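Section 4.2 – Deliverable D4.2 (structural model, holo form)

The reporting period included a commitment to supply a predicted holo structure for the target in complex with NAI. Inputs used:
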Amino acid sequence: MSSSQSAGRTAIIGAGVMGETLLSGLVRSGRRVDALLVGEKRHERATELEERYGVAVVSNLDAATRADTVALVVKPQDMGEVLAEIAPVLRPGQLLVSLAAGITTAFIESHVPDGVAVVRVMPNTPALVDEGMAAVSPGSHCSEAQLAEAESLMASVGRVVRIPERQQDAVTAISGSGPAYIFFVVESMIEAGVHLGLPRSTASELVIQTLVGSGKMLQETGTHPTVLREQVTSPGGTTASALRELEVHKVRAAFLAAMEAARDRSRQLAEGS
Ligand SMILES: NC(=O)C1=CN([C@@H]2O[C@H](COP(=O)(O)OP(=O)(O)OC[C@H]3O[C@@H](n4cnc5c(N)ncnc54)[C@H](O)[C@@H]3O)[C@@H](O)[C@H]2O)C=CC1
Ligand SMILES: O=C(O)[C@@H]1CCC=N1
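Output (structure tokens):
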């Protein structure tokens, strides 16, 4: 089912970076704005979204009462407060889709009435350009149709995979936080280009197109990244010299340590810290 055919009203509670990304994707994919509601605490932000999308920004209680599906897009630390606020108006058959890092479906289920279905999602910001990667996991009493509805929400802004919930912390470390690592690499390469004497604009164009082209090669050829890397690495050439430095500086080990740290932080968020 495409998102534009989806029935019912959808509310987004928490319309910061990720909430707006989802909202804009739903609008782009053809969802009627009058079938969308937003709950957002910051008054200025609410006004901005009303002006930008023509969407109704209402109280969280109103959003949770009127919607069939409620996307929870507040920070993990704010989730308990939001659930406590909306729980009294939630009813069996409604679907809660949480995009918050770390927060488990069991935590959400323990704060809402029985019969409210929960799906946990880990999205990422490339959803803003319809190239998102989202991983979804159903809670303990979520129907196939409700899981499909959650998938349809996320499919409006990119690709979706189903995963067991026990993998969500690792997924958060890889694709949820992943865009930040890539942007960090891009920043580092642009700075290096400037150090090597290139104008910043030239360095930026070279690095960004190299990233886009490499990503497209990975996706379109399906060739293993090791093979693609070897194709660039001429014996005794420039790439081999560069890669030796990356190994000397333990970049591979740094990536592993970074992603373990992100996974561990996701686990801590589940404990409320
Ligand atoms: N930014 C990212 O790349 C990703 C974020 N996420 C998850 O998405 C969630 C939101 O993250 P961001 O959008 O980055 O944060 P953000 O801080 O930009 O947005 C959170 C929004 O929630 C609003 N809010 C806070 N308390 C509220 C309440 N009681 N009622 C209504 N609105 C309330 C805030 O005013 C803010 O606009 C987090 O749980 C995060 O783990 C998941 C994957 C990627
Ligand atoms: O940094 C965070 O906690 C959120 C979750 C994944 C990406 N951003």
